[in-house]
Amino acid sequence: MLKNPFLILLLLITVLLSSCEKEENVPQTNYSIESTSSFELISMHQNGWIKQGRYQLSGEPTEEFEYYENGYIKSAKIYANYPQQHLYMEVSRSEDNKPLWSKYYNPDGELWFETEYTNGLSSIKKVYSEKGTAIHNYIDGELSSVEFTSADDSHTSITTYNSAAGTRNVIITSNGKIILNENYPYREQVGAGIYAGNDVPVANPFSAIETSYNKLNHSSSQSLSWQHDADPIEFMYPYRLFDEFYNPGYYFATRFAVSTDLYQSVIEQYPVTENGVLIGGGKHEDGFESFSNNWEVRDSLAKVYHEDPELYKLKYGNEYIKKVGYGKTFFVIGAIRNLPTNDEAANEIKNIARRHMESLLHGASGITAEEQEILDKVWFEAKFFSTLKEHRNGVVINSAEDYNNAVQEITNADPSIIQLQYETVENL
After folding, report:
1. Which of 289, 267, 150, 147 has the alpha carbon at shortest distance from 209?
2. Rounded distance, CA 199 to CA 135, Å?
3. What is the model's pLDDT at position 216?
4. Where are the domains of the chain?
5. Which residue ranges in the chain fall short of pLDDT 50?
6. Residues 171, 180: contact at Cβ < 8 Å?
7. What is the spatial distance between Cα 102 and Cα 79, in angstroms, rounded to a whole number?
8. Phi, psi of 271 (to 5 degrees)
9. Cβ(154)–Cβ(174) under 8 Å?
10. Residue 81: predicted pLDDT
11. pTM, entire model
């Protein structure tokens, strides 16, 4: 036993110094954000988060973006390299995460369609093509009219919606003369035509046919998983599915953003995903409505079509609704921004974020106070989306109660139209 007090003191000091030396030798996790070969940190906010950044591949930009200091997207430009390098999507948003405007481009650089928003809701959408321009007007985010003018000004098509009366009116002119002026049900039904290149709904020559409802009652769900993009296409159906081959590629299916407001809302909120997003959800297919005993009607219309194809397409479009699908769909997205450059640190935070989101959705044990401090180093947000209008721009989930309330709202809602499937008129 040591009896000399000075020797005891010396031993304690030695142990203390040794302990401090060991702590200093423990490598500290690097949570900093720095430029890499694929990411350029252009500027930062005073809180250490990204202000402006740029992702690149082989020297070409893939994403250019700016964040507000609170972590929301301020603006973004998204590029594709097929069929050649080109800007294909551009968005601008407010500091409280409301959309201001967006633009989408063709591979040749020409503007394809643009949307302007008022108080976070669509106010006007313009779709351009070599055949003409379609202007989609909205009131409080709901479509009120679609006006199409051909490139040579020879004909127009105007569809006006009246939700209170439950009708829509279609007026089509050719060389200054009205060739069709008809009222139809507010929601497009089986047989309704469309100018598929511009998403312009027109007349319905099948108004007298019978339809049948095929009950499906199919439901499916998917638990949370990390995905590269916030692309909800596997959880929802494109509202208008035209009669053509679709290959989604590896980036957003922007073709569906023209008519599928929910899809457009999601991809414009999460154009940049920084090492992926957590996404999960479920959908229920109630059934679909389609033609029933309509061969005689089809043969009659085929005869009319072949007598004057151009006039027929002018009145009834180049594709018509073959099926109307009904159901419900919802999904949740957990997004992270301002992730550290270090892979170990990024993966640590992603793991914490996943467990935190699981607790938000299912009331699990959650994360520790120390882990919450680490998660607070980045921007993280969980949102619930569904086919209901009140969920279109997402509902922030801060607790399991928030999530359960949102799920209950869609559970209590009646099935709605989730997809219109089209067939070309050449198949009449």
Report:
1. 289
2. 10
3. 96
4. 35-109, 208-428
5. 1-2, 10, 15, 17, 22-23
6. yes
7. 14
8. -70, -30
9. yes
10. 87
11. 0.90
